[in-house]
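Interim report to the steering committee. The following record documents the input for Polyketide cyclase (132 residues).
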Amino acid sequence: MEKGIMITVEATINAPVAKVWEYWTAPEHITQWCAASDDWHAPKATNDVRVGGDFSTTMAAKDGSFSFDFGGTYTEVKNNEVIGYTMGDGRVARILFKDNGNTTDIVETFEAETQNPVEMQQGGWQAILNNF
């Protein structure tokens, strides 16, 4: 698989954009939703939501068999509108938040990694977004 393939996942959240932004960015909320399945969780998160700020979320199997830190540095932040970042491995991602009044559309686009099939990556990121 060649580097640079972009994957998009999206969802409509039944909440106003300010609440969605808060839950997306506050570490105490990130640890409640950032998991792709019921046997995983996010026991720790840090988040400095500003251009040049860093973030890190520990994602772990609940049985303790495996964990990893997912993190990076913000390259673009417009409150309630957009977040752009570069991941620790150099890949890029961008998240758009579209305010529809009582609902918010989230469109997340990220650069695929080369270890796993695109479909698997898209499925995992979509599962996390759906859990949100």
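Residues 16 and 100 are 7 Å apart (CA to CA). The committee is asked to note this result when reviewing the revised timeline.
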